[in-house]
Fold:
Amino acid sequence: MHSLSTKKHGPDQPDIVGPTPKSQRSKMVKSTEDGEKKNLNKRLKDVEISVPIVYGNIAFWLGKKASEYQSHKWTVYVRSPTNEDLGVVIKRAVFQLHSSFNNPTRVVESPPFELSEAGWGEFEIAITLYFQSDVCDKLLNLYHHLKLYPEDESGPMSAKKPVVVESYDEIVFSEPSEGFFARVQNHPAVIVPRLPAGFSLPPPVPLEDVNEKKRFDSKDNPLNQWFKNFSEADELLQLAAARQQVQAHIAKLRRQISVIDGQHQQLKPTSDQ
Structure:
């Protein structure tokens, strides 16, 4: 069964709630497509794909323009630690704001997965991530507490330097489909393991909904200058992903040895007679 999990990095970060299955949908396909879809949907055993993400908010105090109910302009977002395009994996992000906002459920259908608003109060924002059709049929819920004011509330606020609060995490896709692996194996936002020598993947098939949308270069985001640098954490994450692959390979070898030992035990009484 295809599984999805998250791994946390750093202290005092919001809890991550496990994936919630989406309602099942039956879909009819042409018989000529069955063979191709079957190959693309074939699962890669003992393989994991990791997608590092950062989610959080940037808040600017409005200074002289601030009013009682409009003291800050803020942006909440989900991004790549290296500011790469996450649209290759994430289909849409849904931000659930406080009920006092007009239309508190905000849906963002394409990168950048961010939402900007203005207000005066801090509250918890639920972020739901939906993934591309060949990635995962489950969704992931994240929770971020909107932060507008600096930790040292006694100090003066600055209209030039924003408050930035971010959490760094990893989404792990276990036993990905061959189609998903082939499509993202060279994408800088995704960490993929090396496959055995001689292993052949199907040709990568781009997703129609990704191609139809206007592409956004996340590195052109005007907020980039305020984002935290997670390069060192990203390197540690890649090492962790490599270690996971080694552990999975060791587990596979142990299972094979166990099967061989069982066969040997069955043959042993016969050889003694």
